[in-house]
Amino acid sequence: MASPWERFFAAMARTLAVVVMLAPLAVACILVTAALAGAQRPDPLRFVSSLGAQMLATVAIGSLGAAFGVTAGIGTAFFTRELGAGRIGRAIDMAAVGLSAFPAVVLGWFGATIVLPEVLGRTSASIFFAACIVVTLAVLPRAYALGALALGAITPALREAATAAGASAGRVSAHVLIPAVRAPLRGIYADGLTRAVGEAAGVSIVFLAAARSGYPVSLFTIAGSLVGHAQTMQVTDAGIAQAALVVLLLALAAQRIGARSGGIQWAR
Amino acid sequence: MNVQPAGHVVETKLEATALHVWLGERHALKGANISVTAGKTVSLIGAAGSGKTALLRAFNRLHDLNPQARLQGSVKIDGAEILGRGIDVAALRRRVSMIFNAPSVLPTSLFDNVAFGLRAKGIRDRVLIAEKVERALRRVLLWEIASPILDRPPDRLTTEQLQRMCLARALALDPDVLLLDDPTASLDPLAAMAFEEMLVPLRRDHTVLVATNNLEQAARLSDSTCYLASGEIIESGETPLVFSRPADARTEDFLAGRTS
Amino acid sequence: MGTVTSAPLDTFRPRDAIVTALAYASGAATAAAFVALATAVVALGWADLRYAFSGPVQLGTGLTYSLLVVAVALPVTMAIGIPAAACASEPIVGTQIRVALLASLRWSLGLPPVVIGVAAFFVAMTFVRSAGIGAGIAALIVLNLSNATARFAQAYASVPAAAREAAAAAGASPVLIFFSIVQRRAVWAVSAATLTIAAQMIGETSAVLAASGARSAQAPLPLQIWQYASDAGMAPSEASSCIVLVLSVAACLSLARVCRGRHRSSMAS
């Protein structure tokens, strides 16, 4: 029979596994409780009163960021793994891996300091596009890593069979590899959308910087304004919890799509 | 199906009755009945996927490691049921040791590889462990090669020597039963022959159940042979009889290399 | 029954060209993005790097707080995540909980950090009437529990089943197998996972921002960058902070990469 120490470890492991399972549920319960209770007060960013508009901005920025970021990430994976061998391929691989070392807040700083004033100019649309660029940069390295993983999982025999039939690397990619990784690719897009919707730090920097610099700001993303709100509010506000629940639901919906697509490992 | 001729009073070591094994959706073993006499060597032959390994793993409950595996029926050792709850599975596996089709080297020194089961059993006496390790390595004819490198990882050994080391790990526990899952599958013909020769004297001290794809090996090693196909035991009996006069046409086809 | 009225269009070549062009364009865009980011950060921040440690941004303090946050959050996350991962990767340890845990991990890995940060903010405001860095650390732990468990479980799952079976066949108990075989063989993979989580914690902002209210002057590095990001005059000092933050994250990720390589070679041998 197992020793007392082994029985203790097994019992402790199971208890901690339950803790891990309950943690996200506890978060959801706290938000639901807070959304139903607490004082409802408008805040300087007016996100409670314009939740619909913010939801639109969240989905639009998230979708565009995910579409561009994931496409670029997967395309880069095809380039480095299938088409662009040699030094250039290795250099671009290093660039894509290097991008993952830039935290969201640095990307937001880049968007607010470089992209917004220097590149796009002082219009309402420029804030939107700067936010999209920030989300694109945030999503790209992860999509690259997942794309490379999906391509790496394909058996070399498949490539060899297609190449032996006279196909070029481009043709193998277009007609053999893309169909082979279709399910993971769908999963990577859904994953990108999940992350893009919840992306807060980078996007909030862009919007707050724009607001403080006197840009015409009409929209915020929900996640971004939640972070901005935290800086200004001293007391709990039911609107924050309601907005957080909306972000949670959007992320879960995107995740559900990804889970249905299957084929990728979900890790933050 | 009993591998013993009817009428003989024998000590049954292993017994499976109406044993079904499901591995996920696959019904790997379909109502197998087999009993193995103590001290005898029984070969399990059959095509890949016929259920040989599924049957072997039922005798030391290695299916427990696979969450998708489901067993139904009865498996007894020395007349005691082993499939139920409350069985000390670790102790069972020390009595019913197993080696696999490829050497499974643990991430430690050669000595610790062989001593692993002894330590898992709770033995702390270093002298006793050293004695048992030496004895086990001598029984698998590896002591001369292994003794200078006992404290190093066994990465210098050949595949056949590694497989002997795995067998030594099993023998160090003085098991009643040895389960050999195609033990020469990863060896070249000469190494396989050497390994097989080393197995011959061990048969005297243990009940051996060997799954093999090598028909000649089955004929040479075993007292009885059991032919499986598609998860069913088709025929079993004394090895010379099964090989020379198979009762079932499917066995005959398999032995002749014909697809039935 | 339909009839074929014309030969199907040859879509073979256009698709080749589109995929190839897209892959090349993506590669170029990725390289351009990296160069633009790195150039912007280095060009603006390099000169101010020395000054930033003593200036108003208090880079040294920010870095210290960043490391402090990780020093508290990472061990707690590991202490919970590693036994939980044993449940996820070892069926006999996890028993019936394993299936539920795996399902829970699949669902909870995509939780937006800001959502967890807001929940921590509410709890802090309700019970201690103020949000602060402590709430941020708590949010970081909750945020990374599923992530860490999944990463550790993945590391343990990379140990071949044959090693577990060999140990089990020698009579080892599930817990002994976990500690003497799985942990030992997965040590590099676990190190890689730990370093990756540390990198995420260093760079993670949303959860800490939302939970702490982002008001503290003595705040982790990402939080400081966030606070001053909209001040154009602070751009060079901000860039210096970005250099230090990116280098810290990159160091962790590079070490993680080395560990992953070691794990792969140890698995291959």
Could you characterize what this model shows?
The complex is a heterotrimer of chains A (268), B (260) and C (269). By secondary structure, chain A is an all-alpha fold. Chain A has one domain: MetI-like (MetI-like fold, Orthogonal Bundle). Chain A has eleven helices and no strands. Chain B is an alpha/beta fold and 260 residues long. Chain B has one domain: Rossmann fold, CATH 3.40.50. Chain B contains ten helices and ten strands. In chain B, the strands form two sheets. Chain B has a six-stranded mixed β-sheet, sandwiched between helices. A four-stranded antiparallel β-sheet of chain B has the order 2-1-4-5, with helices on one face. In chain B, a hairpin with a 2-residue loop joins strand 4 and strand 5. The N terminus of chain B is likely disordered. Chain C is mainly alpha-helical. Chain C has a single domain, classed as Orthogonal Bundle (MetI-like fold), CATH 1.10.3720.10. Chain C is 79% helix and 0% strand. Classes of the chains: A mainly alpha (268), B alpha/beta (260), C mainly alpha (269). Chains B and C meet through helix 2, strand 6, helix 3 and helix 6 of B and helix 8 and helix 9 of C.
Summarize, please.
The complex is a heterotrimer of chains A (268), B (260) and C (269). Chain B is an alpha/beta fold.
Low-pLDDT runs of chain B: 1-8
**Could you name the CATH homologous superfamily of chain B?**
P-loop containing nucleotide triphosphate hydrolases
Gyration radius from CA atoms of chain B, angstroms: 18 Å
Counting H and I runs of at least 4 residues, what is the number of helices of chain B? Answer: 10
The helix-strand sequence of chain A is HHHHHHHHHHH
Structural class of chain B: alpha/beta
Uncertain parts of chain A: 42-48, 263-268
What share of residues are in beta strands of chain B?
25-35%
Structural class from helices and strands of chain A? mainly alpha
List SSEs of chain B in N-to-C order: EEEHEEHEHHHHEHEHEEHH
From the alpha carbons, calculate the radius of gyration of chain A and give it in angstroms. Answer: 22 Å
Q: What is the number of domains of chain A?
A: 1
Q: Biggest β-sheet of chain A: count, sense, barrel? A: none
Number of strands of chain A: 0
Describe the strand arrangement of the main beta sheet of chain B, using strand numbers: 6-7-8-3-9-10
CATH C-level name of chain B:
Alpha Beta
CATH H level, superfamily name of chain A: MetI-like
Secondary structure: number of strands of chain B: 10
Average pLDDT for all residues of chain B: 90
